[in-house]
Amino acid sequence: MSAPTADAPPATAELSATDSGLCVKLAGDWRVTRSTPDWDKLSRNTPPARIDFEFSQLGYWDSSLVLFLDDVCNWCRTHGTYCNVKPLPAALRDLASQLEDKTVHPLPANRSPDFLTLVGNATLDLWEKTKQYSNFVGQCVISGVYLAKHPQKFRWRDATSEMQRCGAMALPITGLIAFLVGVILAYSGAIILRPFGGDIWVADLVGVTMTREMGAMMTAIVIAGRTGASFAAEIGNMRANEEVDALVTLGIRPVDFLVIPRIVALGVMMPLLAIYANALGILGGAIIAWGLLDIPPPAYWVELLTIVDTSDLMTGLIKAATFGLIIGMAGCLRGLQAERSASGVGQATTSAVVTAITLIITFDAIYAVIFNILGW
Q1: Mean confidence (pLDDT) of the chain
Q2: Strand order in the sheet with 50-61
Q3: Which Pfam family, any one, appears in the UniProt record (predicted)?
Q4: Which stretches of the chain are DSSP H helices?
Q5: Dmax of the chain from CA atoms?
């Protein structure tokens, strides 16, 4: 770097084509107080494969030349052009390298994820949620074993209150849904069986479907939307008001205090609600069979007893108990994970219902395979 002079030649950057690409000839004095070439105006042609520099006529230079070289390097990096900075003076090359390290490169404008990225992110999210749910199930098992060994520490009053809320107070909506499902099944069966003279088999269709599948399934869906969402909202509000943190500070585990009584209540009440739903569904089918197919109730009942046995009833009860545990754990888990805001509580409520229904359908399919293998 030579000293600046009063009659210094202006800074120039001339481009010339070479066999390998392009040569940038730097000449004159480069000063920040004077006009210097603009690389954006010089680089309007098609990007070459390589850019070299020639600086034999370069005079005085300062940070203006460093900034010019940085623009060239960024342009080459964007267009995939090799920029040969090795012939430059060592001091100039070092300053350009330091500026590059401190420069924040803008992100590409188009960063929309591709299909594989979406699949990968969804897989990682599913794996993370599976670990969270498995960890929570483990905590519930440990707390359940602890409370079974110390029954005096179990909150019986809370469990009884939850049984009343999720059991007795859910009878109207559960009964209505089950009755309508029985009516729908009877109507659908009549359309299919009547042309073949199989009117009486409507009783078989309604009885088997209600006791094995629809009684437990419809009850679980109703309870997931009613009680599971309620669990998530209650515990989410407690978390937002730092009541859960207060329990932890007092040495009380939230799973023992808040979760286990609710899970026990649902695990006990769901089979009873399923039996109630089975009865209402069969009643709805009997009314349609009597009114539409002229099948008297005694004949409907006798035909029903010929096909429905204890294995059908037990199948539905096992499913109902499992669905109750799933709904309780999904609601409580989402409540404990809720963010400390009103919107966080709302999101936890929605997530609890979605999680519970997804797991209910999944476990119902698993049970269908298992019971088929066992011959039930």
Answers
A1: 86
A2: 12-17, 22-30, 50-61, 82-83
A3: MlaE
A4: 39-42, 63-79, 90-102, 115-149, 156-166, 171-193, 201-209, 215-223, 229-240, 243-249, 254, 260-293, 297-307, 310-336, 342-374
A5: 119
